[in-house]
């Protein structure tokens, strides 16, 4: 049966430090959605257990797409989803949907401009990462399982037109420490370049050292403890696995018993997908996210649109929620745009002054109990450290006039406007001017209060 294709489509207490809500870089309003999620009813469909196809509407409009009648393609995806859920417990129903769509997307590789990575990460051992990779190995297109494989071997294994699907287990042994990451910089470069079609690496081969171009484009799944390098995570659909809680059970995976059924399903998926390559390459679906997140998720959404049924809605729901969750996680890290978002909150909390001295800005940054700046380095974030972070965004200190009329080194608010607009565009306005310094606290006189 040929699939049907839906159209794309209060005044704070004086002695309490109050911080306006933080913006999430690249996701306007996502910080509000996160706050709303904290108050959500646990019985709503959006919090359905993994394995359930019931999902609530998500930001970005996925709920506007009505479910269509089931098709052969949607039934294949339902079957694959159920098979994956037999052996692993993903962190959410959306994560299970994403894994299902990613597996099917590997069978349509020739259609894609971007090859999304699947980052299967967890905080510790025994979170089900390797077990999920076991299931992926038996269901993806042309699996190539690698553990400590050299980049040179991978270069020579990736075909031009129909490359294998790379499955990298124990990725933490490759990127787990800065020293490891530096040693394996070539592997990171390969994974980053291979996210987009027509990105090549040149190596000399043979006794005469003839330059030769090697293709890098291939779908890839990586499993490991802890986050992968930022540049890899940014190109990934991220599945954050957890240990099973008491009462959660899964079926043990046994190759001899379970592989035949998974291989049969893989062949049926491949047979269904093969005639759809040209159609998939032409589709430009409506996406609930933008930029690189849209590039990464587009193949999964196209798979859902080709399958029909409830999958177009499930795909967009998963996309919107998981991208917002990763953006929130990124904002919590002390690298990247976190410093910009926190400085914007400081300016908002002080009533949007034209400038702040470096000393005052550092002091206020350290007052946020949820920020890392008080413990940054040996004695907290320093003026030099702050300058180095902001230099990456084109923001430099200069002479500013403080409240006591003297001039000091500091930062003009208008110097941040372009960086805020690009990296943390949504910050809640502050109706009141909260007192960021608890009463009775002692500050340096140079902060200009008094």
Automatic annotation (TrEMBL):
It holds the Pfam family DUF3631. InterPro entries: DUF3631. This is DUF3631 domain-containing protein. Residues 1-71 are annotated as: Disordered. Residues 240-423 form the DUF3631 domain. It comes from the Bacteria.
């Amino acid at each position: 049966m040929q699939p049907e294709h839906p159209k794309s489509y209060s005044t704070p207490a004086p002695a309490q430090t109050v911080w306006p809500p933080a913006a999430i870089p690249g996701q306007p309003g996502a910080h509000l959605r996160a706050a709303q999620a904290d108050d959500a009813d646990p019985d709503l469909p959006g919090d359905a257990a993994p394995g359930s196809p019931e999902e609530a509407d998500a930001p970005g409009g996925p709920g506007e797409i009505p479910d269509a009648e089931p098709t052969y393609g949607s039934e294949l995806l339902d079957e694959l989803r159920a098979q994956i859920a037999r052996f692993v417990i993903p962190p959410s129903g959306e994560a299970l949907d994403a894994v299902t769509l990613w597996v099917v997307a590997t069978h349509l590789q020739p259609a894609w401009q971007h090859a999304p990575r699947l980052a299967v990460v967890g905080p510790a051992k025994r979170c089900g990462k390797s077990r999920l990779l076991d299931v992926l190995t038996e269901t993806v297109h042309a699996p190539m399982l690698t553990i400590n494989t050299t980049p040179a071997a991978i270069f020579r294994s990736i075909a031009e037109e129909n490359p294998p699907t790379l499955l990298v287990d124990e990725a933490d042994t490759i990127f787990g420490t800065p020293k490891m990451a530096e040693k394996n910089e070539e592997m990171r470069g390969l994974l980053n370049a291979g996210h987009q079609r027509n990105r090549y690496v040149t190596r000399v081969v043979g006794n005469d050292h003839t330059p030769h171009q090697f293709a890098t484009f291939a779908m890839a799944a990586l499993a490991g403890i802890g986050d992968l390098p930022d540049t890899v995570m940014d190109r990934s659909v991220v599945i954050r696995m957890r240990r099973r809680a008491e009462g959660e059970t899964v079926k043990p995976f046994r190759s001899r018993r379970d592989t035949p059924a998974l291989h049969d399903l893989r062949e049926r998926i491949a047979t269904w997908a093969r005639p759809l390559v040209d159609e998939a390459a032409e589709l430009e679906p409506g996406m609930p996210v933008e930029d690189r997140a849209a590039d990464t998720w587009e193949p999964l959404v196209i798979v859902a649109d080709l399958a029909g049924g409830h999958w177009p809605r499930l795909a967009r729901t998963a996309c919107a929620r998981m991208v917002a969750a990763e953006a929130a996680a990124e904002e919590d890290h002390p690298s990247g745009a976190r410093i910009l978002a926190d400085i914007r909150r400081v300016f908002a909390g002080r009533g949007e002054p034209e400038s702040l001295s470096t000393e005052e800005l550092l002091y206020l940054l350290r007052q946020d109990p949820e920020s890392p700046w008080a413990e940054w380095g040996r004695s907290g974030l320093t003026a030099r450290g702050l300058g180095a972070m902001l230099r990456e965004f084109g923001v430099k200190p200069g002479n500013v006039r403080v409240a006591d009329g003297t001039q000091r080194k500091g930062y003009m608010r208008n110097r941040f406007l372009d960086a805020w607009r690009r990296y943390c565009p949504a910050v809640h306005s502050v109706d009141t001017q909260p007192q960021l310094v608890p009463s009775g606290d002692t500050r340096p006189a140079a902060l200009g209060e008094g």
